[in-house]
Amino acid sequence: MNTMKAVVIHSYGGREVLVSEDVPVPGIAGDEVLIKVHAAGVNPVDWKVRAGYLKEMLPYQFPLILGWDVSGTVERTGSSVTRLNVGDEVYALADISRNGTYSGFVAVKGDSVALKPHSLDHVHAASVPLAALTAWQSIFGAAELSEGQKILIHAAAGGVGSFAVQLAKWKGAYVIGTASARNREFLLELGADEVIDYTKTPFEDVAKDVDVVLDAMAGEIQKRSWKTLKSGGILVSILGPPDENKAAEFGVRGEGVFVKPDANQLAVIAQLIDSGYVKPVVTEILPLADVAKAHEMSETEHVRGKIVLEVA
Ligand SMILES: NC(=O)c1ccc[n+]([C@@H]2O[C@H](COP(=O)([O-])OP(=O)(O)OC[C@H]3O[C@@H](n4cnc5c(N)ncnc54)[C@H](OP(=O)(O)O)[C@@H]3O)[C@@H](O)[C@H]2O)c1
What we know:
Blueprint: E1 3-9, E2 19-24, E3 32-42, H1 44-51, E4 64-65, E5 69-77, E6 89-93, E7 105-109, E8 113-115, H2 122-126, H3 129-142, E9 150-153, H4 159-171, E10 174-179, H5 184-190, E11 194-197, H6 203-206, E12 210-215, H7 219-225, E13 229-237, H8 244-250, E14 253-256, H9 263-274, E15 282-287, H10 291-299, E16 306-310
Parallel strand pairs: 9-10, 9-12, 10-11, 12-13, 13-14, 15-16
Antiparallel strand pairs: 1-2, 1-4, 3-5, 3-7, 3-16, 5-6, 6-8
Helix pairs in contact: 3-4
Bound molecules: NADP nicotinamide-adenine-dinucleotide phosphate.
């Protein structure tokens, strides 16, 4: 087992730079595990990296394997990893600064890896880590959302939003989500208390006195979001640090979140999934060979829930 199939890029560019190749199976350091990839979740960051949009922030070397969500089986453990065993069925957010999961195997730090939810197959488990951790770290980490608070979640029907709605509901918050009309029923079923069709209604006319805004849109939508917050509230942006001057002007706080791998948070999320509080929404399952199609779909920015690539 020296080589594996992987989708790599040799330069930044359009979907045509995605190529399937035989590459060496990665070695592992003492604190890492080698995971046999069964499924790889697709996230917008995959095509943003491919296109070179993040090259200032993450200086990659080529060839680069994209994709950082994984569900699979532990194939080998490093000498200092005691918590995981060969054969464990696990899921993880791999280190986004290194080679990713559109591949037969991936090396991941042991403290990023958790046992996958028992109730999910690998395809559904692979849809969870990056999006659910982003939602968790934004609403419970940065915003410290508590029971009875009101949260406005933008892009509520997307990967991050669909987890954020369910996690906020589990916490006992009042949840307002923005989406187009076709996602209204879907979001009510996920637990949203109100859904604002952003194509017809300016959300700021409806959402008032909110404690937390989860901003997955930035730009104009962020500018219009400040006025929805009550004094002392917080806007958490997952697209870079929000405008501090605006936050001060409205007497609120703004914070940026960039998701980090975290096995402990993934273990709690697995429990919430297994006890039925949270369910991942996978709307498209494709073979790894159809990775360009998966990117094309994600680039529309109108996918409901998640896209997953089946690898093994
Ligand atoms: N900082 C971080 O660590 C981090 C982590 C994850 C993601 N992100 C970023 O956060 C963004 C969201 O990620 P994601 O994975 O949730 O993306 P996604 O799954 O591609 O989001 C798609 C969703 O966005 C909705 N949408 C599009 N335009 C909208 C609008 N104007 N108002 C409200 N909803 C709208 C769509 O709903 P309709 O079809 O109903 O319009 C669709 O369901 C991406 O830009 C991603 O790169 C950052």
